[in-house]
Amino acid sequence: MPPTARDEAVHRDGGHGRPGATPRPTSTDPSTDQPPALALLPVAAIACATAALLLLTAPRFGYFSDELYFLAAGRRPAWGYADQPPLLPLLAHALDAVSHGSLVWLRAPAAAVTALGVLTAALTARELGGRRAAQIATAGAYVVSPVMLQMGHLLITATLDIFLTTVTTWLLVRWVRTRRDRLLLLVGLTAALSLQVKFLSAGFWAVLLVALVFAGPRDLLRRPLLWVSAAGALLTAVPGLLWQARNGWPQLAMTKVISHEVATEEGGRVMFLPTVLSASGLVGAVLLSYGLWRLLTAREARPYRFLGLTFAGLCVCYLVVHGRPYYVSGLFAVLWAAGATGLQRLRPTRPRAWSTAVAYVLSAALAVQVLPVYPVHRLTSPSADRLAMESVGWPDLATSVARVYSELPADRRRRALLITDRYDQAGALDRFGPQLGLPRPYSGHRGYWYLDRPADDTATVVFVGADARYLRQFFTSVRRQGTVTNAQKVHNLNWGAPIWVCEGERRPWRTLWPRFSHLNADSAKRQADPPRR
User: 457: domain range?
Assistant: First the structure.
């Protein structure tokens, strides 16, 4: 429909009587005043099917390493932790306590927010002017995205961070259309929650503000409720920031470690954009690319251009600092919505409908492989999914350690100490060890080091991982007494890990423990590392 004379006038003055002001749209289609009807039944069906799939696969295999760490950290409540704010550890501990260790209950929030993400993505398409087909296409893209399914299977920081960013973009799109300032209070709430899940979310807001300055709508930056909400969100982050300051800002040190891992082990900058597209999925990559192009270039999408610039800006930032590709996944939904809304202009035909259906089915078949829908013996293959491989064998690790611990003489066993080289190993012993009679574990790895230190009256140490050369820095006697295996014979990171019996600590623990603090799990890379505190 060609624009009317009134439409042209509104475009010139932005609806505010000022030449060149940002238009005040009702959707990306300027010919409509209200968004299309919500395709509630099909979108709800997609969301419910997603939740059901995630809940059915939740108990398969076992805990992910970060989940074990969150359970252990949550049992030691604090205002902050070394590598994340307190919300997720406390949530994980609460769920574990009320469900008596149920993996389904632990992962139920992840399934719930992923299903709600499907609905939010469809609502975003609706706000952009997407009709029924565009809403269903956007919801479908969310479901067949490998990163959304993989994160929906686990209760980790990325799971909640992606969902909260998805909700934030929907609220911002809705504000641009309606100019209802009370939506900004909800934006502040999502920001506050994001800062309690992951400090990295501050990067999204920084890039978003820059994009608003360059592309508008600058009216948003003049809204008092925006800054009131921002102040409230920052206020909630103060306790965690104070914890970080008192402990030497370990989050910044972790950022450097992650950058090094991405650069040396995960393909670095060369693999960033290909990984972003593959994480989006087969259909999702097409919609994402087209949606980004529309947001950056299409005249009717100009009011929402700041979101396209935010995505592009975040990609540039994470390319420079070697960030992980899934850090930008929270913006996938708005790009899919923009792409699907643009494609609805095409007149539907039977051949096109069939090809679209086939593309979604193929995308789903590929995406579902990130879930544990296959027999566990497939993890013995060299090409097996690394994340799934690291989700098996935790009870076996505890059993292997318990065997060595039980062989200690009774007088030495009463004062013995368990230390692990990696934080996930300590988390596994914390989760499965008590039922085997094991004492609480310690680890110098990453955030686990901050949870507690050994008492000075401990003697014999059962140490999991590392090597003899590293351990002789701390003990006069180091003997290998066991090896970690698992019943599934999956050769993951724990397979073949040595179990040592160490005695004769060279210094009291109050002075020795700081030297155990390390961010890298490879003992060979830290032989000469000085203590961090």
Answer: 394-526
